Prior knowledge:
Shape: globular
Low-confidence stretches: 30-51, 130-147
Amino acid sequence: MKYSFFYVLFLSASMYFALPTISEAISKPVASIQQPLLSHPARPATSAHISQYLDPRPNTVGLALTTAGGNGVINVWVPIGERISPRDWPVLPSHPSTARIISLIMNATPADTQELLQRVVCVVHPTKKLSHGKLHQPRKECSDLNGGQAVSFQKSDGTVDFTNQSGRWSIANAEIDSYECF
């Protein structure tokens, strides 16, 4: 049988991420393996669990984020259709400099996944600070306008720069209220 390069790559990546889970399951007593089934994972209690929630898993979009003066690239996988906040997940930068969509993990064939990846839209919702210091929640609609409104981008946009004040994706150094991909 002939397999495409992307199919083999997808299978090998799936096995790579599954191996630690398999080895942990083998080393644990049977009674400690079973966990309650949840539609969404509960908010982690410790910082050690935070990165695990935003690790690669099915139905997530991979984002590569950088911060001004940061130590390299922060890779996170945002659950599709779920709005997540840096206040709840401190691994997410609250003041990103750049963002880029890097991957999509779906239960689909590699060709379908690549097609879907091109249609993914990610939205960054900044928090707007008022003059007296109180926070104002961002508007729900998505817009390319500056001034605290949400900014959207796609894979075809490449690396988007949030710090370019005259750029399309400028968020004027605002704090990020939430990230969302769909």
